[in-house]
Design goal:
Two copies of one chain form a homodimer. Chain A is mainly alpha-helical. The first copy, chain A, has ten helices and no strands. Helices cover 74% and strands 0% of the residues of chain A. In chain A, helix 2 crosses helix 3, helix 5 packs antiparallel against helix 6 and helix 5 packs parallel to helix 8. The interface between A and B is large, with 48 and 48 residues.
Chain lengths: 211, 211
Amino acid sequence: MTEQTGTRGRSGAARPLPKSHRTRERILDAAARVLSSKGYAGTRLQDVAAEAGLQAPAIYYYFGSRDELIAEVMFVGAHRVRGHVSDVLAALPAGTGPMERILAAVEAHLRYELLISDYTTASVRNAGQVPDEVRERSAAEEAAYSHMWRDLFEAAREAGDLRPDIDANLARFLILGAMNWAAEWWDPSHRTLDDLVAATQQLVLGGIGRH
Amino acid sequence: MTEQTGTRGRSGAARPLPKSHRTRERILDAAARVLSSKGYAGTRLQDVAAEAGLQAPAIYYYFGSRDELIAEVMFVGAHRVRGHVSDVLAALPAGTGPMERILAAVEAHLRYELLISDYTTASVRNAGQVPDEVRERSAAEEAAYSHMWRDLFEAAREAGDLRPDIDANLARFLILGAMNWAAEWWDPSHRTLDDLVAATQQLVLGGIGRH
């Protein structure tokens, strides 16, 4: 656990929140868990309310509809991962090389994805199940995130850090897939998060780097 | 498309099937599609029947219950991928090196996974949603498949083909995750399956191989 993520709660907020905000966060966390285990079609507001320790009508104070709540879960998961990776990249010392920036992004992505793992698995498992209109905001967010990774790879290619024979777009999708899927199998009782980060960085560096 | 997969139908069968078997296959294919798009909780037999062009009661002629049908979809997907990869490995010339065997398994896995993509996405998306008792058969099948990959990596390590500093178990899970997730994003209108296979093999060879 890095200091950056360690000082935050599961919602990713750094400061105490007003009560209404905390309740909204509790509903989102509960919805992420239910969406993750029941899927889009099986997610019922009464289960989300029970998980959050609220009455179902209270949810409507914060979210206009079931679909609005689900859309927010999908959006928030993608948005927070992107925000975290972006913050970590911005905090790197000037002059950090393009490949080191990719490896830092790999670490930041994995740590944050597994910290908010209910949001990650909710998104991974429902990628093809949530209707387009509900996915609209999160799809735009994911596209922006994908763009960030494309830029990281592009910078590495321009610096001559990538193997010249590589299809950088395919490699990028494969690597993001490997990382996202880790939320489904990684078991902290078998391997530490540090081990997982190191193994992923090693695979990425060996897989795409010039050597 | 390899010759091995090209001569098979989407169900993976090589010979014409008796009609009752074909109907059973049609129900399974339909259930894989519905399970993939609706998730475990949202999969209704009437939707499976409509997708298969049958009346719902006809499904009970082949499967005892909704859960039995879903368990069979999860099992069949895992079983056929394992069978295909196993066949491909068995057909390799004697003396094929351990790393070449891993790369052949990568190709076989990807081609078959994407050929029966409804089964793949049904399994990927429902990994954490299907109750344990329904997953029992497919979980055993997945464990056997995982064992096959562990043996492939073990042989490569013994032959000195793996980078000595690698955590082979973590690398294996990351690679299988990258491949399984390809069913969610690979778009044949952007990249051919040959391109995807080549990029994955390159990532694996660079990522785990000694160089």
